[in-house]
Amino acid sequence: xxxxxxxxxxxxxxxxxxxxxxxxxxxxxQHPDVPVRPILEVDGLxxxxxxxxxxxxxxxxxVSFSLRPGGSLAIVGESxxxxxxxARIVAGLEVATSGTVTLEGREVDVGRRGRGRRSARxxxxxxxxxxxxxxxxxxxxxxxxxxxxxxxxxxRSDLADRVVALLEQVGLEHRHAGLLPRSLSGGQRQRVAIxxxxxxxxxxLILDEAVSALDVSVQAQxxxxxxxxxxxxxVSYLFVSHDLGVVxxxxxxxxVLNRGRVVETGATSEVLDHxxxxxxxxxxxxxxxxxWHPRRRP
Amino acid sequence: MNSPxxxxxxxxxxxLTGSRPVRTLVEDVTLSVSPGESVGLVGESxxxxxxxVKAAxxxxxxxxxxTGAIDFDGRSVLEMSRRxxxxxxxxxxxxIHQDPRAHTNPLRTVGDFLVEGVVATKQxxxxxxxxxxxxxxxxxxxxxxxxxxxxxxxxxxxGLLQRVMIAMSLLHEPRLVLADEPTTALDVTVQSEVMAILxxxxxxxGLGMLFITHDLDLAAAxxxxxxxxxxxxxxxxxxxxxxxxxxxxxxTAALLASRPSTTQVKRLxxxxxxxxxxxxxxxxxxxxxxxxxxxxxxxxxxxxxxxxGGRTVACHRAEEIGSELERDVVA
Lengths: 298, 331
Hints:
Largest interface: A-B, 42 and 45 residues
Largest sheet of chain A: 6 strands, mixed
Largest sheet of chain B: 8 strands, mixed
CATH class of the largest domain in chain A: Alpha Beta
Order of helices and strands of chain B: EEEHEEHEHHHHEHEHEEHHHEEH
Strand content of chain A: 15-25%
Number of domains of chain A: 2
Structural class of chain B: alpha/beta
Strand order of the largest sheet of chain A: 6-7-8-3-9-10
Strand content of chain B: 15-25%
Helix content of chain A: 25-40%
Number of strands of chain A: 10
Oligomer: heterodimer
Number of helices of chain B: 12
Number of helices of chain A: 10
Radius of gyration of chain B: 21 Å
Distance between the termini of chain B: 34 Å
Distance between the termini of chain A: 54 Å
Mean pLDDT of chain A: 85
Shape of chain B: globular
Shape of chain A: globular
CATH superfamily of the largest domain in chain A: P-loop containing nucleotide triphosphate hydrolases
Order of helices and strands of chain A: HEEEHEEHEHHHEHEHEEHH
Number of strands of chain B: 12
CATH architecture of the largest domain in chain A: 3-Layer(aba) Sandwich
Helix content of chain B: 25-40%
CATH topology of the largest domain in chain A: Rossmann fold
Structural class of chain A: alpha/beta
């Protein structure tokens, strides 16, 4: 049951032209005066880890946010802030203690891990380490074909076309389909990871520190690519990161987490230019820039 | 920089001789650190920055052959005897590694780790060393130092453990600190604190520091001199404010332009391709394959280092393209 999904043929791969008309619809829906139903709503999400014989640890504490169609939301925080746990619960990789997650108007069961094929097609995730997230023995093309075969009923030639289209979408070439991950650079591997996530045509793409492991010059390429993909396909991003510069470039709203709690939320530009909370200010002050003096905590 | 340099590396060449074909890892690297000077060695992965620093401590595996000159205070590091080398490593220099957890023994207490070096080389008695270590930890804002001395590395946070590493590196009062991405594994607010402590200690004692990082912003903020490496060679070096404000090498400019800003949204100037290793680049300029300004000359001939506008730069076209590079960074 995916009635709220935008009208689209699910059994055939989309052509680029269909994509572009879709993105126009999405842009019109983004108009601030028109209320749009959020594509993802998270309400009162809480996760408590109870280690064997240890004290309870509240990793995520009453976190709520919503993501509009075609939007890009950042979850910002340091290690232990609960940002990755939140993303993993949304993706169905982690079980929540309480709270609700609503995807496309349908509440998902947060008490259960793995929500089946249908859910997987709504939310996809790109992980931090492109060296760990790909199967070292599977060629890039074979991996994409496997994914497409599981989720769609495509003819052999449609399958091949779709693989080429996906590689092109992430800035790779046809010849990369025949390569194993070990022959690819870090940036190319991350592009493959993004292509794999896009293969099932998700509405929400979760990027968990997806550019943190890349060298700056390559990171810039991938960030530009992510901006382009969102503009073209209208997919929404849930962007988990500790890097405020990266967050500024690819998100429009953000959520600052500290020890599992939301300390500040708002438009990314507003939060970074005029932080209201002392913790957000401390995060901003800690970013090295010209004339920066490292400071000890008071 | 009137005083003679503490560490002087000239035309350093590193080759992997254990493999066939022999691979060049670092080529023609020249840099120096004077007493009291902080030098930032900046580059992306595979640029050879860590290898260069390891060579300065002669910590390279036997499969890597070093040629050229590495002098510490007038003594040749490459020609030191076993005993001379041991003394050099234990008294003159100190190294702080990126990942403190990988460089501490999980089975020994923090106290054992801190004093082991100075006690084994008979520079201090154990009691004296423990007392000094506690005092040092105190200076670094660790209030309960005596208790920490009895703890194990797993009981300390990353930031705390890195402070212990810094204390260990300063205990024998070295004259030169080699810091290899000491804060890369830490959160930003913790990085700020650890950097503050490191800079305070190094400046307060008038030590030389060679600071390796991939973060040009961080290096520019805390060092006096920048050395930018790409594919095993130095492409530009000079005073940090000069390089940061108007880079003359296209790679330095690209590094500055590709860093996402926290204050404005802009299309990032991305460099096509990926960082190359020294053995992959041809006979021409190491950056030619990714450089938007490259000409046939760049592809055919390796540019020599030249002094232009207060810094040293290895680019054939540094004079012509200078103004365009400035515009890129400002825009």
